[in-house]
Amino acid sequence: MTTIDTTTTLGDLVTTHPRLAGELERRGLDYCCGGQRSLGDASRAAGLDPIVVAAQLTDAAEVDGDDATPPWAQMGIVQLTEHIVDTHHRYLWEELPRVEALAEKIAGVHGGRHPELAAVQRLVTELRTDLEQHMAKEERVLFPAARTLAADSPVPAFPFGRIANPIGIMLLEHDRAGDLLADLRRVTEGYRVPDDGCASYEACYRALAEVEADTHLHVHKENNVLFPALLRVDDERSAVRPVA
């Protein structure tokens, strides 16, 4: 039987039990950017009783009946970067243009009756711009450096210095994406489609909810699994790195 401990970090909780991600989100517990916080601390900050939350999550994990560690949690650095690109980056490269077009369409059709759609359109455009620039940096700079760092060959002097430098930028950009997603959830009242919403309205809000869930898991894999692994390897190999 799985027993959830209040001292477990949110990041470790989702790494061990990925299906609990939705349970944490429904309680307003940020497991991606806030993954280093313990369940107890995060619950108290959200005005929740940690013991009650731990018991509820234990019950949810028992219902799921899946204690197997997900494959991505056991991947090495190179394999994990490839998994992130193939799973999450590819999804966002394909989905963000479609969602932005839907947001523009429903704002044009329904904006007169629902003025909040102007904010939805603006936030979606900002989210797409930020995430696409972010993914490009990872694919062109950070992930190639990660693969070099994980190789057995001598580590070159990176132009950006230690790997912690680009990671720090990625963490800030993750926080920014999280803020935009939180704003979208607030403005849309949890992606609630109004009674007069059309099929495109429903498609847009459904897609936004899916982008939110996927991005939270995407950020979790980087913040709480990939980046700590990179920092550990960088520390181990720093003694043999040439001075720039």
Can you tag this structure with a few keywords?
244 residues; 68% helix; single chain; mainly alpha
Secondary structure elements and pairings:
Layout: H1 10-16, H2 21-26, H3 39-45, H4 50-64, H5 77-110, H6 116-150, H7 164-187, H8 199-237
Helix pairs in contact: 1-8, 3-4, 5-6, 5-8, 6-7, 7-8
Explain the overall architecture.
This protein is an all-alpha fold and 244 residues long. It folds into 2 domains: 10-64, no CATH class; 71-240, no CATH class. The chain is 68% helix and 0% strand. The chain is built from 8 helices and no strands. It has helices at residues 10-16, 21-26, 39-45, 50-64, 77-110, 116-150, 164-187, 199-237. Helix 1 (10-16) packs across helix 8, helix 3 (39-45) crosses helix 4 and helix 5 packs antiparallel against helix 6 (116-150). The longest helix has 39 residues, at 199-237. The relative contact order is 0.15.
- Report helical residue fraction: 55-70%
Poorly predicted runs of 5 or more residues: none
Query: Overall pLDDT, averaged?
Result: 90
H/E topology pattern: HHHHHHHH
- Biggest sheet, in brief? none
**Strand percentage, roughly?**
under 5%
Distance between the termini: 52 Å
Q: Output the structural class.
A: mainly alpha
Helical stretch count? 8
Q: Could you say which overall geometry the principal axes of the C-alpha atoms support?
A: globular
The overall strand count is 0
Cα radius of gyration in angstroms: 20 Å
Number of domains as seen in the coordinates: 2
In short:
With 244 residues, the protein is an all-alpha fold.
